[in-house]
Amino acid sequence: MRDWTRWHTPQRRFMPAELAPWLMDSGSLTRRLKMHNKNGFSVKVLGNHWIKPLTDESLSLRLPTSQMAYQREVSLMDGEQANVYARTVIPLNTFCSMKQRFTALGTKPLGELLFTDPSVKRGPIEVACLKPKQWLYEMALLEEDYRVEALWGRRSQFHIGGKILLVNEIFLPTLLGN
Predict the structure, then answer these.
(1) What is d(CA 58, CA 89) in angstroms, rounded to the nearest whole number?
(2) Could you say which architecture CATH assigns to the domain 12-176?
(3) Are 165 and 94 in contact (CB under 8 A)?
(4) pLDDT tens digits, the chain, 178 residues: what are they?
(5) Domain assignments of the chain as residue spans, ordered by start
(6) Cβ atoms of residues 46 and 177 within 8 Å
(7) What is the DSSP-derived secondary structure letter of residue 54?
(8) Could you tell me the CA-to-CA distances from 28 to 49, 131, 137 in Å, in that order?
(9) Is residue 142 a contact partner of residue 122, using CB atoms and an 8 Å limit?
(10) Residue 95 · residue 120 · CB < 8 Å
(11) What element of type H or E holds 45?
(12) Nearest 10 degrees: CA dihedral of 172, 152, 62, 161?
């Protein structure tokens, strides 16, 4: 499996038209999903682990590629159906300075923490088209019983009190009913 993903500045002409508004929206994905979902919004926690980030994540966060980080993986659900796979990478120094905030999340959406704290600043959004055999593609569909030609995702850094974390959001075809 390849762990290298090419992230770039969003360009509407290269994205699927129906997905572009989701990929480029700098507001709270949680808030948007709560309005969009027909069967209720919830967070399904897939895991919380200490891992080595993917190479491109380490580079984005300016971490040594050997440094461990805390990872939170969730599915953002519409009833019983996953619409988004989200993976947050939290560097050690960020986690240690805000351990209680992260360990107390449980099934609460990270978006509520990020978008209700006025001190949080979001960095630029980057997008990528993910293909089979890429790590994020495979993780996004790990619990799903279908495969598609490609998935689109976005990521951005969030800065909280001088600390940084990286949020990846992979949009599943079920979001738009495909």
Answers:
(1) 9
(2) 3-Layer(aba) Sandwich (3.40)
(3) yes
(4) 556 678 888 887 888 999 999 999 999 999 999 999 999 999 999 999 999 999 999 999 999 999 999 999 999 999 999 999 999 999 999 999 888 888 888 888 888 778 888 888 999 999 999 999 999 999 999 988 889 999 999 999 999 888 999 999 999 999 987 5
(5) 12-176
(6) no
(7) P
(8) 24, 26, 22
(9) no
(10) no
(11) strand 41-51
(12) -60
Contact yes or no for 98/126 (Cβ under 8 A): no
Type of residue numbered 136: L
Please state, in angstroms and rounded to a whole number, the distance separating the CA atoms of residues 1 and 147.
Answer: 16
Residue that is written with structure tokens 């619990």 in the block: 143
Number of residues assigned to the chain: 178
Residue showing tokens 């891992």 = 51
Amino acid type, 18: E
Site of tokens 């940084």: 164
